[in-house]
Input
Amino acid sequence: MKEHFAAIIEAVGEDLERPGLQDTPERAAKAFQYLTRGYHQTLDEVINDALFPSDSSEMILVQDIELYSMCEHHLLPFIGRAHVAYIPTGKVLGLSKVARIVDMYARRLQIQEQLTMQVAQTVEEVTGASGVGVVIEAKHMCMMMRGVEKQNSVMKTSAMLGSFRDNQATRYEFLSLVSGTNR
Output
């Protein structure tokens, strides 16, 4: 990867012997590996047996989970937050594991629409929840730094599974809790 970054830097017309750039290909390769570390994680490692029995059947919401991802179309970041809710059916997920699931998928070359669905489907699969709702809001550097250059645009995506899709009251409760956050 280091050699490829060196080629890119030279292709834009820069001199790799310039003091500020001498170690940049190596630093860029390390940074890119970190930004895409989700490819090297498994769901089992992320969950780490943090699934616990529970009698709760009420909505569990973890909101404002910050996320950092890379647009698969331009390799530019998108930055935002996820709101994840589920209705347990005998098992609850350790609180930090919800954020770790978001991170595992966000730290891949990604589109927001797919990320939203991956998080929802994974929480449903892991917990056996009767319903899962996920909303992600993000600012995309590919839209802010290039193209239309719209600085204040925010993309919002949602995925509703099970009772969040089938039951209007459940969906409304989730969306009202998420929209009621201090912004």
User: Anything to note?
Assistant: The chain has a mean pLDDT of 96. The CA atoms of residues 17 and 23 lie 9 Å apart. Residues 112-127 form the longest helix (16 residues). The chain has two domains: 2-35, 50-179.
